[in-house]
Design a protein that fits this description.
The protein is mainly alpha-helical. It is built from six helices and no strands. 72% of the residues lie in helices and 0% in strands. The longest helix has 35 residues. It is found in: Cell inner membrane.
Length: 169
């Protein structure tokens, strides 16, 4: 199960990187088209879709790598049992919020499909298509938070060590 979850998180991160490359291509196409006096319709809208997709799909991977922002000042000051209790509480709340976010983003994509909702820009993209990336990303984030919560409850969660605290500017 661990290998499957890690594969899902890594695959979503790879897909996010691919969408980030697509975003770069859209921005470059937009810049080049302005310089050469031609217009490619929809580049701004697709750049926005690709940016959102890359951000949402990277959330679970970022969580598992310990790169999300954490306020550890209080956590580091607490003794073992209190620290564990606070970690469990925080992960429980985060899991609940992530599950709600996943539920509503999936519902949004479903409703956009059911109502044939399209983009208001000139590309007229069916909105459920770019919303799928948000739904998938939030579902994976909820799974990742549930994974972290279960690991913490079982005492098998490794401490998040991103090294960010060591990089002082």
């Amino acid at each position: 199960m661990r290998r499957l979850l890690d594969f899902l998180y890594d695959a979503a991160a790879a897909l996010a990187a691919l969408f980030m490359l697509g975003l770069l291509c859209m921005v470059l196409l937009s810049v080049v088209s302005r310089q050469l006096d031609f217009h490619v319709p929809g580049t701004d809208a697709y750049a926005g879709y690709l940016m959102a997709a890359s951000g949402f799909l990277a959330l679970a991977h970022t969580l598992r790598r310990g790169e999300h922002i954490r306020v550890t000042l209080l956590l580091n000051a607490l003794p073992g049992r209190m620290r564990n209790a606070l970690e469990l509480w925080a992960l429980s709340i985060a899991t609940l919020l992530a599950l709600l976010f996943a539920l509503y983003s999936c519902k949004l994509a479903w409703q956009s499909h059911a109502f044939h909702d399209i983009s208001t820009s000139n590309d007229a993209t069916p909105l459920w298509i770019p919303q799928l990336a948000m739904a998938l990303g939030t579902v994976l984030l909820a799974v990742a938070f549930l994974d972290e919560l279960l690991l913490q409850a079982l005492g098998r969660r490794s401490a998040a060590n991103s090294g960010a605290a060591l990089r002082n500017e």
